Target: Peptide deformylase
Amino acid sequence: MAVKPIRLFGDPVLRTPAEPVRDFDKELRQLVKDLTDTMIDAPGAGLAAPQLGVGLRVFTYYIEDRLGHLVNPTLDLSEETETDDEGCLSLPGLAFPTPRSVRAVAKGFNMHGEPIVLEGTHLLARCVQHETDHLDGVIFIDRMDPEQRKAAMKAIREAEWFGDPAPVVRESPHRTYGKAI
Model:
């Protein structure tokens, strides 16, 4: 099991757009395993590479017994939206009403470079949008209206974990995927 520390709100890596994956190699497969193990251990519904400090366009998801990952995703979203509570492993213990498209079609690749199309509604669509936002340097509270975002920021500042330093990541010869930003 390769559980890694999850970066918390305030860490600059969460606001940095991730780079496309170019090499579908052993290092990418290890990253997908680390993301999956960490997401399941947390437990969470999804986890994006920047949340582990890796600036690559990769995320994992575990929704309604569907476990998977997507590399270099692009999204087609429905115009119909819904607002529901949303949380994030980088903002532990907090959830806020967030608008999202009801339906999403995500296109990308698996860790072997084979094309994937992932279609979903409601929770799966929300997860895919949330994780793709992470790859773009966007955090879900950015999707809220200004008044709700102000209330969310107050709750974040009052959270027990707020202001904790980012985990120290020591590079090892065995951990070479991507670049820790």
